[in-house]
Amino acid sequence: MRATLLFSILVLLVSLGCIQSSVVPEIKCNDSEASADIYHYGYVTYNGLTYADSCQGTSRMTEYYCRGDGLQSEVQDCPSGYACSEGACMVVPCVDSDNGNLIAEKGTITKGEATYTDYCVDESVVEYYCANNEINSIISRCPGGYACIDGACTFMTCADSESGRDASVAGTVTKDNKSYADYCSDSATVFEYYCGDSGEVASTTIGCSSGYACSGGICILGCSDSDGGQDRYVKGTASNAIGTSVDGCSDANTVLEYYCSGDMVLLNYLDCPSGYACSDGKCVSAPTCIDTDGSGVTTKTTATFGGDSYTDYCKDSRILAEYMCLDGNNPPTSVDYSCGSGRECSDGRCISVSCTDSDGQDIYTYGHVTKDSSTYYDSCTDSTHVKEYWCNTDNAVTIMVDDCPMGYECSGGRCISGCTDTDGGQDAYTHGTVWVGDASYSDRCLDVDMVTEYYCSGGGLAWTTIGCDLGYACSSGVCVAKCEETDSGNDPKVAGTTARGTVSYDDTCIDRSTLREYYCLRDMITETTVACTAGCNPGGSCNP
Asked: How far apart are CA 429 and CA 444, in angstroms?
């Protein structure tokens, strides 16, 4: 009964709104990392959507995170030593393919884009390895019995080319990149190298049997001849305990023939028959000298002797080296020939040449020289020099650079009449001469201080008069420095100025009673002091 009453009261309160049910608000932003963390992969759930951290290449990433209830994102660079992988900045790992400092195995280190591979330096290996995630290296010498080969210390086995101790075979033992070849310790003993039971290089001496001698590290018969005796047509080698001798030539027709007699090596001189010559220790068919043009200097040919060729050539423009056969059994001989007047050497032969000059070495005429198929035209090197081509007495093209005479100038490859001024224009202080063609006009004095100045204008002659400045006078057509004074000399009662050239001096009072007086003496400026009895006038004179 009591429970029923309580339930009824509860229903009544709910219906009247006195009790309300609780409402759970929706979560809008949720970050699996709980913060912005570029070193761990995370994602953000926002309004039912998921935003995952991601890489932008290998060095940048996009990081999503929540700020309040809102979604935020940033693109950040991974710091040095890190790279972006699977949405997070990860430490770039150091990777060693041979797993450490292992000198017996060639390895390669990689970290990011850096790559280093083990390699050899003489008997040592440069070994790269990782330490504290950094690339390190060390140089380690390979231990005994090992050699560095292709970036790794490799065990070297002992190898003998003759497979044992055999005095009849010249062998070589190889170990640790070193070779040991059998040799003769004396004329009857072989110093023999071989591999020991423990793989070491061992050696012993082996005496040659009776009738044998040591030669080239092996025991051979007391005397042997590769061509079987005295055979002048085969080059042979004779060997005994003393040494080895090889057939040769004593001259062009005689063979030095070595052969065996018992255990001795003997020598004989064998003549080659007619039609044969000695070459490389044997008689061979003798070559013949062939020259198709004989001593013809106008034809370029090639003489031959055996397999050799000899071609005519020019030593210079006048001398031909002509090959010819003076003796059919010997190589051709080179003989020098002068091509002579009117000819020159060209491409191994003497050819006729002609040289013509259209103006005959005339600097006042534009001309040209023609020789063979070439033409050379006169030209100006500058405004006053002409390059003149002409033919000399040997029909050779000759070049001469000439000065155009005064009053002429170079134009169009010739000297033509023009106007030239030696003082460069209107200069009264430099004496000059104007040339027009062959006529000359020199500057002159019109009176004591006036110059008649000649100059060029528009390619022709012009003149004017120029007055000399104070302190100058005309002499021999030029203004020269001259002493002049305005007070007629040494006159202390008249103030004056004395000048010579660009230098001038005014009479001046030194004090109230003393005057410094300037005047001309022998065309030079001279000064003196004068005592003024009535006092010195400041204007530069003694008072009367």
From this structure: 12
For 105-121, write each residue's pLDDT tens digit.
Answer: 899 999 877 899 999 99
Q: Identify the band that residue 27 occupies on the pLDDT scale cut at 50, 70 and 90.
A: low
Alpha carbons 396 and 392: distance in angstroms, whole number: 6
* DSSP state for residue 208 in the 8-state scheme: P
Q: Considering only CA atoms, which of 407, 429, 428, 427 is closest in space to residue 417? A: 407
pLDDT tens sequence across 390-414:
888 777 889 999 998 887 888 888 9
348-372 as b/e: b if 16+ CB within 10 A: bbbeebebebebebebeebbebbbe
Return d(Cα 274, Cα 254) in angstroms, integer: 12
Residue with tokens 């001038």: 504
Q: Which two tokens stand for residue 368?
A: 């040209």
Considering the entire predicted model, what is its pTM? Answer: 0.29
CA-CA-CA-CA torsion sign (420, 425, 426, 428) = negative
362 by DSSP, 3-state: which?
coil
Domain ranges of the chain: 29-91, 94-155, 287-352, 356-417, 482-543
Is residue 457 within 8 Å of residue 425, measured between CB atoms? no
What is the SS3 assignment for 365? coil
Task: Centre a 10 Å sphere on the Cβ of residue 449 and count the other Cβ atoms it contains.
Answer: 17
Does residue 150 register a pLDDT over 70? yes
- Tell me the sheet residues that pair with 117: 108
pLDDT score at 50:
92
Q: In this structure, what token pair is assigned to residue 445? A: 């004095």
Distance CA 301, CA 196 (A): 69
In this structure, are residues 238 and 259 in contact, taking their beta carbons and an 8 Å threshold?
yes
Cβ-proximal residues to 26 (8 Å cutoff; 6+ apart), any chain: none
At CB < 8 A and 24+ separation, what contacts does 383-390 make?
383/409, 383/410, 384/409, 384/410, 385/410, 386/410, 386/413, 386/414, 386/415, 387/413, 388/361, 388/363, 389/357, 390/357, 390/360, 390/361
pLDDT for 44-76, tens place per residue? 899 889 988 899 988 899 999 898 888 888 899
- In tens, the pLDDT along 411-453 reads 888 988 878 888 888 998 899 898 887 788 999 999 988 999 9
Two structure tokens written together for 289 = 């000298």
Contact 292, 309 (CB under 8 A): no
The residues with which 475 forms a beta bridge, in sequence order, are: 478
Give the Cα separation of 58 and 86 in Å (integer): 10
Provide the CA 254 distance to its chain's centre, in angstroms: 54
